[in-house]
Amino acid sequence: MAELYSVPKLEDYSPAAMDAAVRDLLNALEQEAAKLSGENDWKAFRDRWMSRKSGVLMQITEWLKLAPKEQKRDVGQRVNEVKAKIEAAVDAAEARVNSQASSARLVSERVDVSLPGNRRPLGVKHPVLRVQDEIVAVFKAMGYSIGEGPEVESDYYNFESLNFPPNHPARDTQDTLFIAGQEKKQQRDRLLMRTHTSPVQIRTMEKQRPPVRIVIPGKVHRNDALDATHSPVFHQVEGLCVDTNITFSDLKGTLDHAFKSLFGSSVKTRFYPSFFPFTEPSADMQVSCIFCGGKGCRTCKFSGWIELLGCGMVDPNVFEFVKGNGYDPAKVSGFAFGMGVERIAILKYGVDEIAKFYLGDVRFLEQFA
Ligand code: PHE
Q1: On the chain, which terminus has fewer CB atoms closer than 10 Å, C or N?
Q2: To test the ligand 1 pocket, which listed residue (157, 159, 196, 307) has its Cβ within 8 A of the most ligand atoms?
Q3: pLDDT at 264
Q4: pTM here?
Q5: What Enzyme Commission number does this protein have (predicted)?
Q6: HEC letters along the chain
Q7: pLDDT under 50 in the chain at which residues?
Q8: Using CA atoms, how far apart are residues 105 and 110, in angstroms rounded to an integer?
């Protein structure tokens, strides 16, 4: 490294000697200024040339002090010129260093306005829950309240009190998972994953005297293999209406209204004889095919109708289990229904496989946003 300039002691203060001394100094100033990079360099440069204690500028005032009288004027002028040049060089160097720093920042921090922004996508309600809420809202508008019950249920609520006696073959249609290690318990106390939302009918009637109008949404479990339309876990909305003089026409009118609300007023409903241990008579409700309007298509298997839910008049044997709470089968009557939420969602949205609801694939789900 070249040696740094240091201020010489002058012997000769003649104009020619001063010219040479000033030239050396300004050369050194220019060369040092040219090498600066970064703020720290600049600070060192500034201090070296301008520090009040020992800066070059300070030192050349010695020239003035030591100059012979007759040269003082000339030397003083030169010192002033040099001072102005040093100050200008330090200022210029500062400006240069700052602009280098900011252009370096611009390179490293540059904003590419063509990049997509930071998106924080908001989630939306899952289509199954959305349809579940829509169904519930239709009944809420008719004055129904909303209830819930446990997913792990006892044999008593899931089967026995719903008039499925032990070993009754109707239990086979609703096979499910039992909680292990309950052999010592009486059958009615054994726990299982509920196969339908109907146990909440009894739970509601145990707590609330008639009249009752309630819908119960929830998850249910069955030993069903997964296929295009069945899943071992799915959702139901149960309904129960009990009062004096409730008839089958109340059931028909209520469900007809509900499905016109859900699928549009041109939809027709019909009731087909069926069997459930806890309703008598029992029916399957069908809606006119929402795809072909009833003409017949692949979805409705060319029948014009689609089966949507199970329903019926509450079996007097069911009321017997809650008779003490005001449900004397001689005095009250009622209807109940239970529908699969996924099944309705499949029809509403034209989904081809029930499993798509559960895969969590955003490409599928975001269509419902
Ligand atoms: N719980 C029945 C099922 O899951 C549906 C149903 C509910 C039928 C209420 C009649 C009355 O298949």
Answers
A1: N
A2: 196
A3: 94
A4: 0.69
A5: 6.1.1.20
A6: CCCCCCCCCCCCCCHHHHHHHHHHHHHHHHHHHHCCCCHHHHHHHHHHHHCCCCCHHHHHHHHHHHCCHHHHHHHHHHHHHHHHHHHHHHHHHHHHHHHHHHHHHHHHCCCCCCCCCCCCCCCCCCHHHHHHHHHHHHHHCCCCEECCCCCEEEHHHHCHHHCCCCCCHHHHHHCCCECCCCCCCCHHHCEEECCCCCHHHHHHHHHCCCCEEEEEEEEEECCCCCCCCCCCEEEEEEEEEEECCCCHHHHHHHHHHHHHHHHCCCCCEEEEEEEECCEEEEEEEEEECCCCCCCCCCCCCCCCEEEEEEEEEECHHHHHCCHHHCCCCCCCEEEEEEEEHHHHHHHHHCCCCHHHHCCCCHHHHHHHC
A7: none
A8: 8
- Residue 139: per-residue pLDDT: 98
Q: Which amino acid is at 77?
A: Q
pLDDT score, position 247:
98
Ligand 1 pocket check for 312: Cβ under 6 Å: yes
Establish whether residue 336 lines the binding site of ligand 1, counting it when its CB lies within 6 angstroms of any ligand atom.
yes
280 annotated ligand binder? yes
